[in-house]
């Protein structure tokens, strides 16, 4: 269950990271409120997952999910580069997350 909670925390991190782009420096009300809500949810879920999972593993997976999701949405929504080297580096992050999951009991 802790891994599912951690995955949801990572997805919420994607929400606030992408949301930051739409706040226009926190000058737009609704994107700002959504971004702050995503921040709160993400940190709360991370805290819940940390009751069971090791800190280093959970934090690395949380930021990895956030990094991958944000990079993918940057490509899909914002027209950012999908160069092969960039995609290969994203794949390395995925491999790291999978490796941490396989190496961590719980």
TrEMBL record:
<comment type="similarity">
    <text>Belongs to the drug/metabolite transporter (DMT) superfamily. Small multidrug resistance (SMR) (TC 2.A.7.1) family. Gdx/SugE subfamily.</text>
</comment>
<feature type="transmembrane region" description="Helical">
    <location>
        <begin position="57"/>
        <end position="79"/>
    </location>
</feature>
<protein>
    <recommendedName>
        <fullName>Guanidinium exporter</fullName>
    </recommendedName>
</protein>
<feature type="transmembrane region" description="Helical">
    <location>
        <begin position="85"/>
        <end position="103"/>
    </location>
</feature>
<keyword id="KW-0812">Transmembrane</keyword>
<dbReference type="InterPro" id="IPR045324">
    <property type="entry name" value="Small_multidrug_res"/>
</dbReference>
<dbReference type="InterPro" id="IPR037185">
    <property type="entry name" value="EmrE-like"/>
</dbReference>
<keyword id="KW-0813">Transport</keyword>
<dbReference type="InterPro" id="IPR000390">
    <property type="entry name" value="Small_drug/metabolite_transptr"/>
</dbReference>
<keyword id="KW-1133">Transmembrane helix</keyword>
<dbReference type="Pfam" id="PF00893">
    <property type="entry name" value="Multi_Drug_Res"/>
</dbReference>
<keyword id="KW-1003">Cell membrane</keyword>
<keyword id="KW-0472">Membrane</keyword>
<feature type="transmembrane region" description="Helical">
    <location>
        <begin position="29"/>
        <end position="50"/>
    </location>
</feature>
